[in-house]
Design brief:
The complex is a heterodimer of chains A (112) and B (115). In chain A, 0% of the residues lie in helices and 56% in strands. In chain A, β6 and β7 form a beta hairpin. The termini of chain A are far apart. Chain B has 115 residues and is mainly β. Chain B is built from no helices and 11 strands. In chain B, strands 2, 4, 5, 6, 9, 10 and 11 form a 7-stranded mixed beta sheet that branches. In chain B, strands 1-3-8-7 form a 4-stranded antiparallel beta sheet, with no helix packed on it. Chain B is globular. Classes of the chains: A mainly beta (112), B mainly beta (115). Chains A and B meet through β4, β5 and β10 of A and β5 and β10 of B.
Chain lengths: 112, 115
């Protein structure tokens, strides 16, 4: 089945700097890659997603890139702000259309 | 309405108790999910319902029993749980096809403690 690896597990950046989180997946048939943000005491919230027919997608300060050949995808957050502090999960849709498999998570801290 | 509502927010139960977790959505989604999340871990898929029929059971022990009474409601019945079942239980929903398929909307979760 699908396996998603995520790095780093923790990341601390200065406010205003950029943050990058990287993921790899194992199933070459995977075609949907969402990113979720989870704040303390809340459920995960979708922040951006990308499908396999697209190499890059941007939404304001957030961008995701996908390299299908290398089976890598990454989240880029620019001009980080204190409210960006949270746990971020990458995910991939596995062989079953209904299964979303999550990476292990990255705890992002923004230093003032 | 773009929310998934889960009740209760917190539940403490003994190993011999029977309790239920409830989930409700009014977005017209026809796929609903239960995930289990342990502290500092990612959500792990437990069950998927599609059009009120169980489509995926990730080999979950029978002490967890899901139920989908209608397209808006999803329950998780709990019986004879173990302390290691203590976790945050997340409900999610999605459209069952088209561009919105697999775009999960999560509830805030029910935090379960088994004594």
């Amino acid at each position: 089945g699908e396996n998603v690896e995520q790095h780093p597990s923790t990341l601390s950046v200065q406010e205003g700097d950029s943050a990058v989180i990287k993921c790899t997946y194992s199933d070459s048939a995977s075609n949907y890659f969402p990113w979720y943000k989870q704040e303390l005491g809340k459920g995960p919230q979708l922040i951006i997603d990308i499908r396999s027919n697209v190499g890059e997608k941007k939404d304001q300060r957030i961008a995701v890139t996908l390299n299908k050949t290398a089976k890598h995808f990454s989240l880029h957050i620019t001009e980080t702000q204190p409210e960006d502090s949270a746990v971020y999960f990458c995910a991939a849709r596995g062989s079953s259309a209904s299964k979303i498999i999550f990476g292990s998570g990255t705890r992002l801290s923004i230093r003032p | 309405d773009t929310e998934v509502t889960q009740t209760p927010k917190h539940l403490v139960m003994g190993m011999t108790n029977k309790k239920s977790l409830k989930c409700e959505q009014h977005m017209g989604h026809r796929a609903m999910y239960w995930y289990k999340q342990k502290a500092k871990k990612p959500p792990e898929l437990m069950f998927v319902y599609s059009y009120e029929k169980l489509s995926i059971n990730e080999s979950v022990p029978s002490r967890f029993s899901p139920e989908c009474p209608n397209s808006s409601l999803l329950n998780l019945h709990l019986h004879a749980l173990q302390p290691e079942d203590s976790a945050l239980y997340l409900c999610a929903s999605s459209q069952d096809g088209g561009a919105g398929a697999n775009v999960l909307t999560f509830g805030a979760g029910s935090r379960l403690t088994v004594l």
